[in-house]
Amino acid sequence: MTPYNKTARRIHTLVLLTCIAVFSILFVMHSVAIYKSTDNLDTLHLALFLISLFVIQQLCYAIFSLGFLIFGKISGYKMAFLRIAFMKWTKDEKGKIHFSTTNERGSSSKCGMYPPDMIDGKMPYFLYGHGLVILSSFFIVISVSLFAFNFYTPVISSLLLVFIFVLLTVVFLDLCLGNAKFTRDMRKSPYAIKGLWISCKLADPSLKNTSLNHMPDEWFELKDNSNIDTYWASFYLLCCGERLLGQMHFKEASEVLDRILAPDSRLINEQYMSTIADRLFCELMTNRNPQIIEKLYTPEFKNYLSNVRTYTNLCRNYAFTLFIEKNPAGAAQIKSEFFEASKNPYNQKDAQAETELLLYAENKYFSNSQP
Questions:
Q1: φ, ψ for residue 101 (rounded to 5)?
Q2: What pTM was computed for the model?
Q3: Which of the four CATH numbers 2.115.10, 1.25.40, 3.30.43, 1.20.272 does domain 209-369 have?
C-alpha cells in the first residue's frame, strides 16, 4: 500500500471512530434519561425501537443516494441505476427503467449517474459532488427543528436524535475528508476532471458492452505533463495506460504506467497493484529488463496475484508464469481458468482484448523458446 493511502485511511478511521464514540456516549445518556422518565417501556416498545433504528439506517442510505440523484439531474447528469435496500431501478440501453430486487453486497444504497458531454474540457461537478451534503443538511435542519419542539414521546425523540447524529456524522466526514478535497483536486489538474468524467461515463448504459479500446480517441488524449497528485488524475492516466495496453502499444503504455507508479500517484492500493501488473506485462512484451522485472515482481505483488484473481490478473499472471516462473504447466492451468472466466457475462466486453493479449504473450514465449 502506498504511504498516501495508509495516511488517508488512518485519518478516516480516526475521525470515524471519534464520531462513533461521541454518538455512543450521547445515545447512552439519552437512553438512560428515557428509561428513568418512562414507566411503560416494555419489551414490545424496545423491539419497535430497535426495528426503527434499522429503518432510520435505510432512510439515511436513501437520502445519500437521492442527494446524488436530485443534484445530478439538476447538473445535467442521467441516471444509470438507483439501489435502495433490496430495491433496484436500472436504465437499459434504450432508456427504459426496470425495477428489480437485489441481494448485492456492499452499501445498502447506491446511485449511478453518467455526465453530459464535456465542453472545452469542463464538466459540471460541484452540485453533483455535494449532493449528499446538501440534501442531508436539509433534513438535519428539519429534524433539529422538530426535535426542538419536544412534543414527541421520549422514544421518538431518541430516534430523531439518532437520525440527526447519523446525518451529521456523514456530512462532517464528507466535508472534511471528501468534498473539500474533491473540489480542491478538481482544480489542480485538467486530468482530474477528465478522470471523474470517464469514471462517471462508464456507467452509461450505451457503453455497457464497450471496452476502453473501442471508446473514442478524444476521450484519452495526453497533451501535457500535468501533475497527477490527485486520485482522479491518476485514474485518468490509468485508463489511458490500460487502453494503450489493450491496443498492444506496449512502449507507449509503459511510459504512461511509469508516470502512475511515481511517488506522487494517488491510486488506491488494488489499482496500484493492477498498474504494476500492466507495467510488468508491457516489460515482458518488449525489453525484458531484468532490473525492472525484479523491482516490480516482489513477494508482496505475487501475494496480490494469488489472492486477487480477477479476469485481467489471470491474463497477466499467465504471462508472468511463462516468462518469469518458467512454468508452462502452471501457465496452462491459469489459461484454462482464464477461458472459463471469459464465459462470465461481466467479462464479455473485455474478453476479446484480453484473449488477444494472452495469445500474443503465448506466441511470443513459445516462438522464443524454439531452437
A1: -100, 155
A2: 0.77
A3: 1.25.40
**Taking a C-beta distance cutoff of 8 angstroms, is the pair 248, 284 a contact?**
no
Q: Are 344 and 311 in contact (CB under 8 A)?
A: yes
**Exposure b/e, 73-91, CB count within 10 A at least 16 = b:** eebebbbbbbbbbeebbbb
333 CB-near residues (< 8 Å, 6+ apart): none
In whole angstroms, give the CA distance from residue 336 to residue 358: 12
Contact 214, 353 (CB under 8 A): no
Structural domain spans, the chain: 1-33, 51-188, 209-369
Burial of 155 (0-12, 13-18, 19+ CB in 10 A): middle
Contact between 132 and 64 under an 8 Å Cβ cutoff? The reply is yes
DSSP conformation letters of 96-115? -EEEEE---SS-SEEEEEEP
Spell out the alpha helix ranges (H) of the chain: 3-37, 43-74, 126-129, 131-149, 154-173, 180-188, 190-201, 231-246, 250-260, 269-285, 290-296, 299-307, 311-323, 328-341, 348-369
Cell of 15: 475521525
Q: Provide the residue-wise pLDDT of the chain in tens; the chain has 371 residues.
A: 444 455 655 666 676 667 667 666 666 665 666 555 555 555 666 666 667 777 777 787 788 888 888 988 998 998 888 888 778 888 887 778 888 887 766 556 788 888 888 877 788 888 887 888 888 888 888 877 777 776 556 666 666 777 777 777 777 766 665 555 666 777 777 888 888 889 888 888 888 888 888 888 888 988 767 667 778 888 898 999 999 999 999 999 999 999 888 776 677 788 889 999 999 999 999 989 999 999 999 999 999 988 888 888 899 999 999 999 999 999 999 999 999 998 888 888 888 889 999 999 999 988 875 54
- What's the one-letter identity of residue 233? A
